[in-house]
């Protein structure tokens, strides 16, 4: 990908949203449908499966989460399937802030990041002061990554400067931790809103933009992810800064993940085909990837009883 480096708006400066291009809904849906018709050659499937596994954020975000459950998830993150040789571990384990220290200790020395949801996840309905305090707490407990949610009510009210400033404040509170900004695209209603929210997040300092919390019925889709990838591409052309992407929610099958990877490769290029730049927020996906790898080795699917329930 060739970068034009126009530097229309400095990072950390509120962008002029009137300059954000309108989204061609028909064009996006048609292009997204073409990605879903692609196939991967058999010889490339194993590498695609391994890449997918390495991009997963294993997640547990339930009110009944316990330290024991988190430790179990961390063990799975480090040992996806001990009978399969040469497979990678996942990218991160994502938990609530109060369980970050447990995950940090369980993953010590593994190279797997600890991610924490923050800012009153999943609703975002808290004061900025509370959100900043929660973010600082998670980082102090050992979080490498913070997944924040934007204030969708403020966005729909047209208070874009508030949304921008809040993201920038959370980014500052993150310190050295990476910031993933969740747009909750199912609540943004239109592709144009998704495009605007993506621009706000990136110019405010997001290291990743993320589709969803996984807590609303409409989560990640290929069309909405394409809109966000195109926003990342244009942001890179304007600033020279690479921002990562994380579709989350509803991606449970390896075949669907491959469609996302094809779309990623054709929209942003090879530089984004790494866990540092692309993640799947989809714990169930890990089991299907492992089942597919076993199938390639043995010619048959392993029973689901052999896999832990995430």
Report on the structure:
- The chain has 310 residues and is an alpha/beta fold.
- It has one domain: Aldolase class I (TIM Barrel).
- It has helices at 25-35, 42-54, 67-78, 100-106, 128-141, 152-156, 160-174, 191-203, 222-239, 254-268, 283-298, and strands at 57-59, 92-95, 113-118, 145-149, 178-182, 208-210, 244-246.
- It has a seven-stranded parallel beta sheet.
- Helix 2 (42-54) packs antiparallel against helix 11 (283-298), helix 8 packs parallel to helix 9 and helix 9 packs parallel to helix 10 (254-268).
- The longest helix is centred in the C-terminal third of the chain and has 18 residues, at 222-239.
- The two termini are 37 Å apart.
- 48% of the residues are buried.
- The mean pLDDT is 92.
CATH topology: TIM Barrel
How many structural domains can be distinguished in the coordinates?
1
Q: What oligomerization state is this entry in?
A: single chain
- CATH arch. level architecture: Alpha-Beta Barrel
State the total count of DSSP E strands.
7
User: If you average the pLDDT, what whole number results?
Assistant: 92
Distance between the termini: 37 Å
Radius of gyration, taken over Cα atoms and rounded to an integer in Å: 19 Å
CATH hierarchy, class: Alpha Beta
Largest sheet: 7 strands, parallel
Q: What is the assigned CATH homologous superfamily?
A: Aldolase class I
How much of the sequence lies in strands comes to: 5-15%
* Helical run tally: 11
Order of helices and strands: HHEHEHEHEHHEHEHEHH
Low-confidence stretches: none
Secondary structural class: alpha/beta
The strand order across the widest sheet is 1-2-3-4-5-6-7
- What's the overall geometry? globular
Percent of residues in helices: 40-55%
């Amino acid at each position: 990908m060739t970068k034009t480096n126009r530097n229309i708006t400095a990072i950390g400066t509120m962008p002029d949203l009137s300059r954000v291009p309108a989204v061609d809904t028909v064009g996006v849906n048609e292009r997204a449908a073409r990605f879903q018709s692609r196939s991967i050659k058999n010889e490339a499937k194993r590498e695609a499966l391994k890449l997918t596994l390495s991009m997963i954020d294993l997640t547990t975000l339930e009110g009944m989460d316990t330290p024991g459950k988190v430790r179990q998830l961390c063990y799975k993150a480090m040992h996806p399937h001990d009978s399969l040789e040469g497979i990678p571990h996942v990218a991160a384990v994502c938990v609530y802030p109060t369980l970050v220290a447990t995950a940090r200790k369980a993953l010590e020395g593994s190279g797997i990041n600890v991610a924490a949801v923050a800012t009153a996840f999943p609703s975002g309905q808290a004061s900025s002061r509370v959100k900043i305090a929660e973010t600082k707490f998670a980082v102090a407990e050992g979080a490498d990554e913070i997944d924040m949610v934007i204030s969708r009510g403020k966005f729909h009210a047209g208070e874009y400067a508030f949304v921008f400033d809040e993201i920038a404040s959370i980014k500052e509170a993150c310190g050295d931790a990476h910031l993933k900004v969740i747009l909750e695209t199912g609540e943004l209603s239109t592709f144009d809103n998704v495009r605007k929210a993506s621009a706000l997040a990136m110019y405010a300092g997001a290291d990743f933009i993320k589709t969803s919390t996984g807590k609303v019925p409409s989560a990640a889709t290929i069309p909405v992810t394409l809109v966000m990838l195109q926003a990342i591409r244009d942001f890179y052309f304007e600033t020279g800064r690479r921002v990562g992407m994380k579709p989350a929610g509803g991606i449970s099958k390896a075949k669907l993940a491959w469609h996302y990877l094809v779309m990623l490769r054709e929209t942003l290029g090879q530089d984004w085909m790494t866990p540092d730049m692309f993640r799947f927020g989809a714990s169930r996906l890990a089991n299907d990837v492992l089942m597919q790898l076993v199938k390639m080795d043995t010619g048959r699917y392993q029973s689901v009883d052999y896999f832990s329930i995430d």
